[in-house]
Amino acid sequence: MQLFSKERFWQRQDLRPSYDVVVIGGGAHGLAAAYYLGKNHGIRSVAVLEKNYIGSGSSGRNTAILRSNYRTPEGIHFYDASIKLYEGLSEELGWNVLFTQCGHLTLAHSDSSVTGLRVRAENNQMLGVDSRIIYPEEIQRLLPGVNLSRQARYPILAGLYHPPGGIIRHDAVVWGYARGCARMGIEVHPHTEVTGFDLEGGKITGVLTSRGRVAAGTVLNATAGWATTISEMAGVPLPIVTHPLQACVTEPLKPFLKAVVVSATLHVYLSQTDKGELVIGAEIDPYQSYSMKSTLTTLEQMATYTLELFPQLRAVRVLRQWTGICDMTPDFAPIMGVAREVGNFCMDVGWGTYGFKASPIAGKCMAELIATGSLPSLIKPFSPDRFRTGKLVGEKAAAAVSH
């Protein structure tokens, strides 16, 4: 009996002279867009270019938390559609993406925080998303080990409980989409860095790479923290700044954490994997940088804030720490659409700290935009034109903690 498949997920191959679509960025967003171009629209002359290995950027450096309990109607509709795609993704791809819908709990430590969570809960309920306020008695049943003492420095007053939320294996999502692309003949090219563009008549005619030039009918920028470096090559300015985001993982423990736990006041969030490890994340670093070096200061902060919630974890050892970089917009909402300056330059960027949870629906919508030339209604609020018209989305209240 063969225990392990020897099938390669994608084949090494030379770049062709031209493609209908060139996707820059081999993470979950770029691969999802390529997959849905092939599956939903029959466009398979597609090349996905990644300067490092597949999933080496933000897709492999996040805490893999999924949820749809955002604050604005635009965000709630969008992320709810993404959760629904995630729920069927293993069957869709024929590949287990290890999605565990263990629930998601956002804690409130002050009256103003409770008010903010109540607004989110009401908005979610009106739009059909399962999300509700719960109080210490129910929190105690959901999280038996959490510190609910009134003498705590930041007492827990309430929480926003979102049962459909949970965690997923981010590598499995990336590999599943890459495998699906390759099976349709869509090319995946790791270690292929984009170095520039040939532009003519307000359009990109060629993509310059470390492996040569290729012609492209349409170019999609899906490069997360490096979004502005690519857009600047195309002459497209973006209101995006890049910040580092750090996280860590502990040694395995006996399972005790039944939901993802988030505290905006403490700027920390944590979940427990199937192996028993605690994955702990922090807020973005307070400075702009492309550095992917982890720092002791942030590790100390993550440990301190985690112990505020779970003092019994004080002797637990941290196994490793990592850093990704995030593309932050002024209104904490993404930029999705076609650049005004370059007619065939599409953008799926500005995701900040919450892009992984949007990967399936973002890819599906960008594929529709590229294939039909029409902006899907679900992503119209996230058009780059909103910064010119002043119609910002304002999602910070539901995205201020990096998860």
* Strand residue content: 25-35%
Sheet with most strands? 8 strands, mixed
Head-to-tail CA distance between termini: 42 Å
Q: What is the total tally of β strands? A: 18
Estimated radius of gyration: 21 Å
Which percent bin holds the helix content? 25-40%
Total count of domains: 2
CATH superfamily of the largest domain: FAD/NAD(P)-binding domain
Q: What's the CATH topology label of the largest domain?
A: FAD/NAD(P)-binding domain
**How many distinct helices?**
11
Shape, per Cα inertia axes:
globular
Low-confidence runs: none
CATH top level class name of the largest domain:
Alpha Beta
Level-2 CATH architecture of the largest domain: 3-Layer(bba) Sandwich
Mean pLDDT: 94
Defining key terms:
403 residues, FAD/NAD(P)-binding domain, 8-stranded mixed beta sheet, D-Amino Acid Oxidase, Chain A, domain 2
Would you write up a description of this structure?
- The protein is α/β, with parallel strands linked by helices and about 400 residues long.
- The chain has two domains: about 20-65 and about 170-240 and about 330-400, 3-Layer(bba) Sandwich (FAD/NAD(P)-binding domain); about 100-165 and about 240-330, D-Amino Acid Oxidase, subunit A, domain 2 (D-Amino Acid Oxidase, Chain A, domain 2), CATH 3.30.9.10.
- The chain contains eleven helices and 18 strands.
- It has helices at about 30-40, 75-85, 90-95, 110-125, 135-140, 170-185, 225-235, 295-310, 360-370, 385-390, 395-400; strands at about 20-25, 45-50, 65, 105-110, 130-135, 160, 165, 185-190, 195-200, 205-210, 210-220, 240-250, 260-265, 270, 280-285, 320-330, 335-340, 345-350.
- The strands form three sheets. Strands 1, 2, 8, 9, 10, 11, 17 and 18 form an eight-stranded mixed sheet that branches. It has an eight-stranded mixed sheet with strand order 5-6-4-13-14-15-12-16, with helices on both faces. A two-stranded antiparallel sheet has the order 3-7.
- Helix 1 packs across helix 9 and helix 2 packs across helix 9.
- The chain is globular, with a radius of gyration of 21 Å.
- The protein starts with 17 loop residues before the first strand and ends with a helix.
- The mean pLDDT is about 95.
